[in-house]
Amino acid sequence: MDxxxxxxxxxxxxxxxxxxxxxxxxxxxxxxGAIVNFIGVVRDHDERTSQLINSMTLEHYPGMTELxxxxxxLKSIQKWELTGVTVIHxxxxxxxxxxxxxxxxxxxxxxxxFDACNFIMDWLKTQAPFxxxxxxxxxxxxxxxxxxxxxxxxxxxx
Amino acid sequence: MDxxxxxxxxxxxxxxxxxxxxxxxxxxxxxxGAIVNFIGVVRDHDERTSQLINSMTLEHYPGMTELxxxxxxLKSIQKWELTGVTVIHxxxxxxxxxxxxxxxxxxxxxxxxFDACNFIMDWLKTQAPFxxxxxxxxxxxxxxxxxxxxxxxxxxxx
Amino acid sequence: xxIKYFSWIKEHIGKSEEEIxxxxxxxxxxxLMFYLENLNDKYKxxxxxxxxxxxxxxxxxxxxDDKINNTDEIAxxxxxxxx
Amino acid sequence: xxIKYFSWIKEHIGKSEEEIxxxxxxxxxxxLMFYLENLNDKYKxxxxxxxxxxxxxxxxxxxxDDKINNTDEIAxxxxxxxx
Lengths: 158, 158, 83, 83
Hints:
The complex is a heterotetramer, with 2 copies of chain A and 2 copies of chain C. By secondary structure, chain A is of the alpha+beta class. In chain A, about 35% of the residues lie in helices and about 30% in strands. Chain A contains 5 helices and 8 strands; from the N terminus they run αβαββαβββαββα. Chain C has a single domain (about 1-75), classed as Ubiquitin-like (UB roll) (Roll), CATH 3.10.20. Chain C has helices at about 5-15, 30-35, 40-45; strands at about 1-5, 15-20, 55, 60, 75. Chain C has a 5-stranded mixed beta sheet. At the A-B interface, helix 2, strand 2 and helix 4 of A face helix 2, strand 2 and helix 4 of B. Strand 2 (about 35-40) of chain A pairs antiparallel with strand 2 of chain B.
């Protein structure tokens, strides 16, 4: 691994919101020509049942979460030439439209940034120990995992 | 085309900078679960010659630029289920580290957002009539087109 | 041995973690799950859908056959749903 | 007919646009390019690398064989380098 790049990795699990502009600026180094950001937001409904929701609460496994995300980020910088990587994942109670996760990747060339960001999201979805519970006025319901997320990681195993 | 989505398309050619957070918020609708942003920035060197640069100036073909970007965006919303698309391209003189282009795509599902954003960037790179001239203390030099950009669009023709 | 539970497994069992002394006949994850689900109905229900249970030993993904010892931190949780 | 030039084509010719009356023997883009490059050395140099010249008729990509008429807006430019 490029020594400089190691300094350009930021992984945060936090309750607070993040600012996409600020995070984009942090990813920008002299050689950076392209930045790709992924932002996940709380939808107003459950994907499986279409039932409307008011909020969701995210719990995680402190310690293991950071280790798993670090593993994924290290894999991505071995696979693609990148100039910076940031992963921020929020925990606690979030309302509809709130930002959940930020994955930002910068590189000299755009396709590396697109692929690395996509790769990190796919692996984060299946490996990082977070769990969502969706809430509305009447009930709370743990979100079920999606087979499509398991399937998504197959494209990186070719 | 979904009537609502037509209202959620924003295409701007402008001298002014853009704010990534603001643009990300604009892309967020009730059904949005995923947003993918691409931000192109001015590198400190010419890609082909590695020569350092101070600035670049972008010119374009007013009228045709907007039409070409609109065609690309319309193709993307026919291909993928999206909730919003924004393309902002700056023109005029830009310094090293300045933001050049913003392509933001929101959708219910992340893979659609990744693919549509990647698709729009690849087509914009080969179709939208912009030209860059790179400047340093001694000279100005029109950027040459890259064969790799022509090759990149082949992945959407399969 | 420290054991942690997350999501609906935690809710079925009614606690997020506990300290146990590893019984002498328990040396793998599979044996630990068998031991726990026979403690009472809460555990039985928590471990009912074994296909859906992920295991970590010392914060690293592990499988049902993996060996464990009394100083390990074990975690049981459903498939992850973050991002 | 309105003709627009961009990037290094504009710089070789020394202007970004001009109004011309389409000569009688010019009815395609190819014939227009041949007509222009024979005006003087500036145009000759601008149209030297024909493989590298993109054409638009009325702000839409066109090819060298396309028919043109006196009310069209024609543009000549190098491969694009934005983004």
